[in-house]
Structures are given as structure tokens and as C-alpha cells.
Amino acid sequence: MKIPSYEVQGLSTPVGFITVVVGEGLIREVLLMADETQARDALRQKYPRHAWTEAGPALAACVQLREFFQGERSAFDLPLDWTRFTPFATAILRELARVPLGATLTYGDLAQRAGYPGRARAVGRVMAGNPYPILLPCHRVVGRDGRLTGYSGGEGITTKSRLLDFEASVVKNPHLLRKIP
């Protein structure tokens, strides 16, 4: 029997179906699709050698995501594959991970915080290519006028809006956050 290259685990959430893809013990990607059918189609295309698993980092990610959507978690502690990013993208994404639940900032603000003032458009490209939606909360980044701009997960801007609305409701009801890591 041939061992698959990737292990996957999925989770139905209020914003769509999430599939976590793991390779060599590291999370390679989080697919956020409108539904499970789209997720399975994307998996077949991008990761033809995959197998569903009930263990390891894929399961841990789904457990943490479930906790997030139950209002019990505000941050994630998972083995992401950071080797795939340029130093610039790494700096941006690590700074993005520090944006607290329920908060938003602009692309320019994120560039400034990561030490790259004036690179808002480049930050936008990093956000568009973020392989870890929700885990690295690119939905918390908005246009300079506060408007919601591009989001590639789920149903696009609708999903981004739903995520921000969900987080706002959790922040307004702090008793929901029972297990903040």
C-alpha cells in the first residue's frame, strides 16, 4: 500500500468547510471553501495523494478551529510550515498572528508594524497568498478607509464579514472565552 504524501482533516464551520492539509508533520495549507464538495474537489486537484486522518497536526488544527468557533480560543498553537515564505512574507505573517481577536488594522498599519512602512500593496499580496486563513487572521486586515477588501476564502468578502462579525460577538461577550491559550 502506497503511503499518501499528505494527511487531511476537515471541519464544517459557520463560515464554510475547512480542510487542513499536513505534509511531513507540518501544516501545509488550510483550505476554506464554501462547502465540503468544493473542498473535496480542491483537494483532489491540489493534493491528489492525500488521505483523511484522525490524528496528528491535522486533527489538532481541527480541534483548535472548533474551539475558536465555539468562542473558546482566540489564538492558535500549531506547526505551520514557515519555510515556504520569503523573509518579508514571514515578517508580515508573524506580525499578523499578533493581531488580537476582534481587532482590525489596515494593510499599511500591518506593513508599519512589521517594519516595512510604505509597503501596503506588498502586504496585500501576502494576504492574498496566505495559506493559513483563520490561523493567521488575514480577515482582520482592512482597507485604509476601513472597508472590507479582498478575501480568497469561502465566499470572499461575505466570509470575511462573517468572521469579523463572529469575533465582535465573542469580544462583546468575554465570558465565552473560556480557554485562551
TrEMBL record:
Domain Methylated-DNA-[protein]-cysteine S-methyltransferase DNA binding: 87-168
Any Pfam family hit: Methyltransf_1N
Chemical reaction(s) catalysed: a 4-O-methyl-thymidine in DNA + L-cysteinyl-[protein] = a thymidine in DNA + S-methyl-L-cysteinyl-[protein]; a 6-O-methyl-2'-deoxyguanosine in DNA + L-cysteinyl-[protein] = S-methyl-L-cysteinyl-[protein] + a 2'-deoxyguanosine in DNA
Keyword tags: DNA damage, DNA repair, Methyltransferase, Transferase
EC number: 2.1.1.63
Enzyme class label: transferase
InterPro entries listed in its UniProt record: MethylDNA_cys_MeTrfase_AS (IPR001497), MethylDNA_cys_MeTrfase_DNA-bd (IPR014048), MethylDNA_cys_MeTrfase_DNAb (IPR036217), MethylG_MeTrfase_N (IPR008332), MGMT_N_sf (IPR036631), WH-like_DNA-bd_sf (IPR036388)
GO molecular function: methylated-DNA-[protein]-cysteine S-methyltransferase activity
Gene Ontology biological process terms in this record: DNA repair; methylation
Domain (Methylguanine DNA methyltransferase ribonuclease-like) ranges: 12-81
Similarity comment: family membership: Belongs to the MGMT family.
Name of the protein in question: methylated-DNA--[protein]-cysteine S-methyltransferase
Organism expressing this protein natively: Trichloromonas acetexigens
